[in-house]
């Protein structure tokens, strides 16, 4: 074999404007399959849309030769003519290269000169065992290694990849074991499992849904026997109408309970069988099969590489590692994935047609995107389709680095958080439903037959008193629903007691078994979900509770004494009126007095609920502790904080939560935990840091909101049960491309020339080393031009100037011809932009100044950064810019939103700020507000508005409900994205 035809390693130099697509594991057969046909279609579509120079790397297992020993490379290409032609057209283009690395299923390419020659002559491919992609970026030289990855799997690694007699264990499994497994009805899809470690779950699921479910019709036999046993008693009751009216309900309820019991037993048997098989430990490897290449990527990055891309495991991944990244291109084949089922049923395994690849290009630095396409193959049975929860097809960029935590996200902590959010939401709705049903039942007359049966046992006073008590318990449950939504343990315990009491009261007031069973069912479910309510009241809350109880007792006692006391017949009269009976007159105090006492009792109940369910306050931090926390926060921001908002985590009014090497900056506003910026720290710790912080917030009973969230963080927030709402866009100026030439720059060019001719100059200072006189003058200038008493801007303003500890900041000051400072811009570092982010922009207001002075300062700053070789400048934030510009949403509703926003803009200058930023031709980066629940929009909106100084801008749920796609950030173009490190 000529090693020049298939070298051990190929080095490919790429220009800064090149794009690279890396895919693997196409497993092209001698006859096209549905999976290879879909992959062919998608790749052809992507290649036809290619623009500019670049490379395609098919990173191993392109052709299936192990599974088809008589197959050839030429036969596989001939079976996929559209892909073959598209690859040939691609390699014929200028500046484009096609590279095929050798996998284990197409290992013959490494030693069969004929196979390598066919690839070269047919599609213009260069073959190699490995390829190093060398990118020339403005940030420096970046090298990415691509190899198939079977060398990291002992079962499929070759001792000598060029030896045709070398035959690893995996080849024998593919050629001898898997064909037999595919012929077994139960194991047919076992070789295609996306996670082979789930083999036990797969066998259990298929056994239940495809073998036991068709026999479910035999469950009708015991039901028929049960009905036959009840027919005799039913006939006797029907023949006596009086008895039927009294006891017919109980017979029907008993039959329903027996049917429900049988269904429950069947479900328990199903779960037991499934659990036993799922826990069997079958399967050679699980989701950890990418661990070895991930470790190899970390080792390569320690040597100076930017990252490693492999395939082989069929498990797509994009993860940050110290100093770089690891990517796995998944596959272009049919895979079988586990999907959750409805109604507590075992999961369903769904065959999918998956197409995955990685794209690399340069935007200031190297950018890596993981593209995943998934569609159902439609092979599930009817029972499986009924049981499985619907999951939409995937067609998206699911991850991008730099900029987010990677994919798939570590799910343990985030899944727990999402589960807690869902549990609390359901608990609040369920308890509120029980309360509403209880109120409706209390004010409705009981059924005559049931009421007569009840009076055979109890005196008439008992059901009437019970009906009155149901009103109070239902009212209390309505109040407690809010506390359950917030995770309060007091609300959980009280609701549990009231639900059990309510069940008893429903039976006593009229044998309302339906309402009683509903209350007991909800109570039983709450007992099981007790871990979802971890927030305990602090000592201050308990003290206030005792004060309210004592004050309430005094008020009620005093009111009773003033009204002449409440006798037993008064209580009875009030109870009768609550169920619609006005026969018994109100003795002693008049109806108005009793109504006043009832209102007083309800008011005290509401006040007591408010005290018990209030959010815990932020623990006070001493001076020495806060100084230590601030010093630690500064170290983390200096090391890991590169975003345009990250330095603002050091504001004086923020608190800090530390976990690992990560920092979360937050403040408590109106009982809401307001987080900004996004957590700061190593990307591989992001998901765990967020899970730990939300657990911390849960313990204090704080609903969490994130203000100014970046798009790359949305997958983590959404995985944790939060919901993003589009808030606006941040303007980013590319200093290297900025120019005052041309028609678009006419307005700012005129302002710039006018101010320069007036004799103004801009000087740059380190704010921590300002001369004292200049510092005092600038602080006075900032106060003079500020609207209001304090500096506002929780997420995008530092609110201090010239502090000695704020080293490494930049101040651009516009000096008049006589040296007087008339305007300034204060900048904080933004390493992700290789530049700066705007903090303050101020100008003098006590005298006439030339128009365009702040424009002049900005333009001079851009020129200054350009001469220093720095890249980006973050300007102002434009609220709802994309909605105002018509870039989000279509149709009448979106047009109505734009009209409403323009009306609001008259008083808030939203549109004015957008147009001001637009003069500098920026790249727009979307920002979001992330809420724990849309029901919290009003209170959290108030907290956000107060924090940002945007009190004029209401956070309107229906208006601002512009959500991103449920996957990771939508794929941006090279021109739309900036500031990636």
Automatic annotation (TrEMBL):
Q: Which domain of life is it from?
A: Bacteria
Q: Which Pfam families match?
A: LPG_synthase_C (PF09924)
Q: Membrane-crossing residues?
A: 247-270, 426-445, 465-483, 490-510, 545-568, 588-613
Q: What is its main location?
A: membrane
Membrane topology (UniProt): Multi-pass membrane protein
Q: Where is this region: Disordered?
A: 962-981
Identify the keywords attached in UniProt to this record, alphabetized: Cell membrane, Membrane, Transmembrane, Transmembrane helix
Query: Which SUPFAM superfamilies does UniProt cross-reference here?
Result: Metallo-dependent phosphatases (SSF56300)
According to the entry, every stretch annotated as the Phosphatidylglycerol lysyltransferase C-terminal domain falls at 634-930
Task: State its location(s).
Answer: Cell membrane
Designated name of the protein: Phosphatidylglycerol lysyltransferase C-terminal domain-containing protein
Q: Which organism is it from?
A: Cryptosporangium japonicum
């Amino acid at each position: 074999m000529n090693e020049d035809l298939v070298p051990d390693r190929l080095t490919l130099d790429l220009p800064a404007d090149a794009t690279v697509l890396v895919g693997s594991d196409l497993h092209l057969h001698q006859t096209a399959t549905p999976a290879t046909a879909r992959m062919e279609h998608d790749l052809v579509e992507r290649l036809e849309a290619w623009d500019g120079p670049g490379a395609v790397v098919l990173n191993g297992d392109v052709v299936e030769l192990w599974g088809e020993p008589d197959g050839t490379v030429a036969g596989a290409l001939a079976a996929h003519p559209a892909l073959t032609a598209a690859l040939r057209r691609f390699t014929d283009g200028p500046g484009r290269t096609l590279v095929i690395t050798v996998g284990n299923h197409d290992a013959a390419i490494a030693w069969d000169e004929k196979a390598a020659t066919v690839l070269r002559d047919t599609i213009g491919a260069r073959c190699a065992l490995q390829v190093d992609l060398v990118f020339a970026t403005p940030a420096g030289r970046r090298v990415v290694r691509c190899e198939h990855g079977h060398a990291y799997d002992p079962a499929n690694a070759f001792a000598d990849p060029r030896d045709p007699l070398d035959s690893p264990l995996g080849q024998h499994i593919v050629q001898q074991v898997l064909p037999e497994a595919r012929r077994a009805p139960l194991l047919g899809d076992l070789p295609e499992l996306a996670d082979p470690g789930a083999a036990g779950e797969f066998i259990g699921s298929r056994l239940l849904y495809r073998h036991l479910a068709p026999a479910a019709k035999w469950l009708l036999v015991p039901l028929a026997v049960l009905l036959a046993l009840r027919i005799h008693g039913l006939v006797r009751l029907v023949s006596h109408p009086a008895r039927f009216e009294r006891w017919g309900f109980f017979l029907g309820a008993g039959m329903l309970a027996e049917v429900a019991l049988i269904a429950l037993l069947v479900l328990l048997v199903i779960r037991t069988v499934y659990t036993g098989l799922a826990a069997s430990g079958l399967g050679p490897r699980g989701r950890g099969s990418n661990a070895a290449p991930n470790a190899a990527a970390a080792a390569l990055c320690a040597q100076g590489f930017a990252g490693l891309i492999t395939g082989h495991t069929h498990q797509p991944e994009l993860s940050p590692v110290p100093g770089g990244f690891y990517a796995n291109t998944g596959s272009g084949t049919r895979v079988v994935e586990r999907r959750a089922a409805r109604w507590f049923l075992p999961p369903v395994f769904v065959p999918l047609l998956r197409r995955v690849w990685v794209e690399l290009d340069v935007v200031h630095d190297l950018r890596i995107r993981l593209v995943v396409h998934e569609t159902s193959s439609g092979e599930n049975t009817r029972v499986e389709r009924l049981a499985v929860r619907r999951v939409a097809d995937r067609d998206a960029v699911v991850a991008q680095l730099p900029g987010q935590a990677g994919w798939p996200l570590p799910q343990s902590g985030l899944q727990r958080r999402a589960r807690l959010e869902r549990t609390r939401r359901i608990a609040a709705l369920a308890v509120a439903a029980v309360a509403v049903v209880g109120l409706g039942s209390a004010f409705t007359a009981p059924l005559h037959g049931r009421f007569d049966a009840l009076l055979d046992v109890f005196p008439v006073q008992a059901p009437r008193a019970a009906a009155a008590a149901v009103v109070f318990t239902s009212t209390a449950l309505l109040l407690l629903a809010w506390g359950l939504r917030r995770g309060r343990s007091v609300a959980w315990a009280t609701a549990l007691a009231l639900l059990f009491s309510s069940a008893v009261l429903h039976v006593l007031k009229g044998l309302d078994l339906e309402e009683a069973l509903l209350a007991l069912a909800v109570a039983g479910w709450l007992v099981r979900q007790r871990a979802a309510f971890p927030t305990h009241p602090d000592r201050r809350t308990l003290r206030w509770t005792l004060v309210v109880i004592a004050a309430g007792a005094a008020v009620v006692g005093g009111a009773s004494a003033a009204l002449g006391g409440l006798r037993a017949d008064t209580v009875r009269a009030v109870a009768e009126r609550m169920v619609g009976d006005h026969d018994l007159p109100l003795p002693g105090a008049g109806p108005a007095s009793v109504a006043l006492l009832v209102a007083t009792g309800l008011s005290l109940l509401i006040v007591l609920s408010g005290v018990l369910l209030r959010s815990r306050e932020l623990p006070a931090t001493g001076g020495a502790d806060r100084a230590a926390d601030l010093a630690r926060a500064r170290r983390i921001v200096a090391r890991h904080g590169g975003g345009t908002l990250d330095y603002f985590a050091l504001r004086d009014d923020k608190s800090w939560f530390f976990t690992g090497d990560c920092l979360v900056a937050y403040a408590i506003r109106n009982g809401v935990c307001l987080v900004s910026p996004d957590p700061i720290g190593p990307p591989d710790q992001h998901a765990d840091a967020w899970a730990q912080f939300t657990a911390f917030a849960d313990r204090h009973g704080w609903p969490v909101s994130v203000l100014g969230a970046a798009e790359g963080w949305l997958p983590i927030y959404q995985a944790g049960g939060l919901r993003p709402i589009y808030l606006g866009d941040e303007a980013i100026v590319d200093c290297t491309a900025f120019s005052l030439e041309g028609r678009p720059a006419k307005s700012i060019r005129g302002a710039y020339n006018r101010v320069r001719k007036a004799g103004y100059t801009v000087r740059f200072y380190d704010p921590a080393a300002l001369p004292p006189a200049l510092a005092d003058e600038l602080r006075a200038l900032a106060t003079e031009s500020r609207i209001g008493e304090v500096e506002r801007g929780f997420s995008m303003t530092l609110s201090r100037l010239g502090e000695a500890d704020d080293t490494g900041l930049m101040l651009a000051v516009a000096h008049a011809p006589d040296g007087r400072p008339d305007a300034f811009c204060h900048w904080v570092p933004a390493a992700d932009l290789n530049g700066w982010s705007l903090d303050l922009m101020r100008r003098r207001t006590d005298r006439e100044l030339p128009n365009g002075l702040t424009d002049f300062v900005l333009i001079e700053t851009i020129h200054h950064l350009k001469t220093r070789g720095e890249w980006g400048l973050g300007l102002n934030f434009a609220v709802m810019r994309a909605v105002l510009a018509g870039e989000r949403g279509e149709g009448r509703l979106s047009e109505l939103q734009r009209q409403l926003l323009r009306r609001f803009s008259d008083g808030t200058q939203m549109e004015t700020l957008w147009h001001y930023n637009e003069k500098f031709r920026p790249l727009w980066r979307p920002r979001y507000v992330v809420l724990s629940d849309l029901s919290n929009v009003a209170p959290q909106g108030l907290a956000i508005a107060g924090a940002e100084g945007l009190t004029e801008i209401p956070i309107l749920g229906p208006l601002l409900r512009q959500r991103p796609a449920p996957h990771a950030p939508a794929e941006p173009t090279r021109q739309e994205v900036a500031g990636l490190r």
